[in-house]
Design brief:
Shape: globular
Mean pLDDT: 92
Largest sheet: 25 strands, mixed
Strand content: 35-45%
Helix content: under 10%
Number of strands: 48
Structural class: mainly beta
Number of helices: 4
Length: 474
């Protein structure tokens, strides 16, 4: 390990947080806190173990390979320049005379986690292979192995390629997490985290669930097999780029978390099931979560998703576009405000029910949806949907779509299909007080069936149901 250098920490010198964030987070380290400067090749965990809680670790530019860090309370890890934590191991290959393939020995993690879609039956294995940082596709057997694919004989600890990898850097994900542990107040800034063999429902940052009050600011999290980031109560994820993770971009639970100013894109490359947990994000058991000004796009699954016992949710000023699943979904939860978002081109396929919506409420009460710009793709998708099912009871009573108010939104249908409105598939006696009004619909056709109130509706029938008294379409 390189020599550790102590120096006095200067708050004014170290702070790079936007002013609006500084006022909202816990105080930074005291001016007398210890600072240690580390260079590539250092053992970061050894430095953490030797240092007191609340140390500021200044990481100099370069790649830190194979690091797994369990911080102490209030530790701060900050990158200086281009700092990369890489969870993979570089592999060495030789020609296998028995198979004619190129083979390397590797330690296998044979544990599987998560649920895969039909096209990706190997998604549960957490180790990914990269050649010159290009992700390779796993194959279930050595038979017919071709370029761009790889086979891992986990029982024998051998991985195979069909082409000579000489002159290329071949990396296999090995470490599970970059940062994990249940201590409070950890800060991680200006660091890239990549190629960790993170299991499903875990985060390369945060592990199986971080401690309270973590601040993750200005990070890039990419090509980790499971989740990118998994944070707990009082956490803040700001100004970061979370992309190309195998299962999901971010997973957050707890009291008063903040998700602001991030780009969340291209997640779920491994093919986890969209009916399980995959795509851009999932928030569960949160109270007063703020999700603001994020750019969420092209995820293989839902974009922004609150699921199970969330209360006091706010989605505001997000741009959510071109995700394979629903753009914003609030499910089996309670009060929420969804306002001033741009939600376009998500779930671009026809559906017989009010699925595939841009914004969708599922068995959740007291949700207000207003001032959003919504647009469906020409190939399909619905607008704004309130959907009631029999889903049971949570922390604040029955999960039921009741007292939801959808108003003052602009909803554009680029194709001839798609609806907005209310659908009941549960107890109609509980699903009361839902209203649509003051919405503006922009249609590419005559608009005969772009509305839904228990069943498909024309505009005149929607109004006869007591909805859209002040709404209009053109």
């Amino acid at each position: 390990m390189n020599k550790l250098t102590s120096m006095i920490f200067s708050r004014a010198k170290r702070s790079t947080l936007p002013l609006f964030v500084i006022s909202a987070i816990a105080p930074l380290h005291a001016i007398t806190a210890e600072t240690l400067t580390l260079a590539p090749g250092a053992n970061i965990q050894a430095a953490v173990t030797a240092a007191p809680a609340g140390t500021y670790f200044n990481l100099q530019a370069g790649t830190y390979r194979g690091q797994t860090i369990i911080p102490k309370a209030n530790d701060h890890f900050a990158g200086e320049g281009a700092v990369v934590l890489n969870g993979s191991q570089v592999m060495s290959f030789g020609k296998d005379p028995a198979t004619g393939m190129w083979v390397a020995s590797a330690t296998a993690d044979s544990t599987q986690s998560g649920e895969c879609d039909n096209l990706h039956p190997l998604c549960g294995y957490s180790q990914d292979l990269f050649i010159d940082s290009t992700l390779q596709t796993p194959q279930a057997s050595i038979s017919g192995l071709s370029e761009g694919f790889w086979y891992f004989d986990r029982g024998a600890g051998k991985l195979y390629l069909s082409s000579d990898p000489s002159g290329h850097v071949v990396e296999l994900g090995m470490q599970k997490y970059a940062f994990s542990g249940n201590v409070p107040g950890v800060q991680i800034t200006d660091i890239t985290v990549e190629k960790y063999a993170t299991p499903a429902h875990g985060g390369a940052i945060g592990g199986s669930l971080s401690g309270a009050g973590w601040l993750v600011n200005g990070v890039e999290v990419r090509y980790n097999h499971g989740g990118g980031i998994f944070l707990g109560s009082g956490s803040q994820l700001i100004n970061s780029y979370i992309h190309h993770n195998g299962q999901i971009g971010i997973d957050i639970q707890g009291l008063s978390p903040v998700v602001r100013g991030n780009e969340i894109s291209w997640n779920n490359y491994a093919g986890f099931s969209g009916t399980w947990e995959s795509g851009g994000s999932k928030f569960w058991a949160t109270t007063n979560i703020m999700v603001q000004s994020n750019y969420v796009h092209d995820n293989n699954g839902k974009g922004l998703w609150t699921d199970t016992n969330n209360v006091g949710t706010t989605y505001v000023s997000n741009t959510v576009v071109n995700n394979a699943g629903v753009g914003i979904q609030h499910e089996v939860s309670y009060s929420a405000v969804i306002r001033n978002n741009i939600v376009k081109g998500n779930a671009p396929s026809p559906t017989t029910w009010l699925g595939n919506a841009q914004i969708r409420v599922m068995s959740s009460s007291n949700v207000e949806i207003y001032n959003n710009v919504v647009e469906t793709a020409a190939t399909g998708g619905n607008g704004i949907a309130v959907y009631n099912q029999t889903r049971g009871t949570g922390t604040l009573g029955p999960w039921v779509s009741a007292n939801c108010y959808v108003h003052n939104n602009t909803i554009t249908y680029l194709g001839t299909t798609g609806q907005s409105g209310f659908q009941n598939d549960g107890d109609a006696n509980q699903a009361i007080g839902n209203r649509f009004d003051y919405n503006h619909y922009v249609l590419s056709d005559s608009g005969a069936n772009h509305w839904f109130w228990y069943t498909w509706r024309t505009w005149s029938l929607m109004r006869a149901d007591g909805q859209e008294a002040h709404g209009y379409y053109n």
